[in-house]
Amino acid sequence: MKSRCAACKYLRRRCPSDCIFSPYFPPNDPQRFARVHRIYGASNVARMLQQLPVNQQAPAVDCLHYEAQCRVQDPVYGCAGIISLLYQQIRSAETELAKTQANIASLVDSNTRAQQVHAQDDLEVESDFDILQDIFLT
Fold first, then answer.
1. Model-level pTM?
2. CA-to-CA distance for 66 and 74, rounded, in angstroms?
3. Which of 36, 63, 91, 93 has the most CB atoms within 10 Å of its CB?
4. Residue closest to 26 by CA, chosen among 53, 61, 55
5. Each residue of 56-70: b (16+ CB within 10 Å) or e?
6. Other CB atoms within 10 A of residue 35 CB
7. What is the rounded CA–CA span in Å between residue 28 and residue 10?
8. pLDDT tens-digit profile of 72-102?
9. CA atoms of 136 and 121, how far apart (whole Å)
């Protein structure tokens, strides 16, 4: 005889062989179903799972569990709070990247100008040397 799934244990009912919850809520993790049930309700989760193809049910349960866990941790914003925080971090990183790229461009420009000045000085020294050679050798 198989053990009842976490959902059937939580709901205190017999676990049928075709239980929609048993593949996704194993008996060794009762908190997983408790979180999902607290936020969505067992009948709503069962209805959602029945409407999905079998290959999409496991990712859907994982998503529901994650969203329920976020909602338990942050009842007001849930996942939206995390998404907002991540967008802020992305904007901050993009701003920092733009500043760093501007600094690099400035340094490259300064280096290029310094090389041009140095090359021009070299040309002036060479032309002065050529003039002196002409004067003394002729």
1. 0.64
2. 12
3. 36
4. 61
5. ebeebbeebbebbbb
6. 20
7. 12
8. 999 999 999 999 999 999 999 999 999 999 9
9. 22
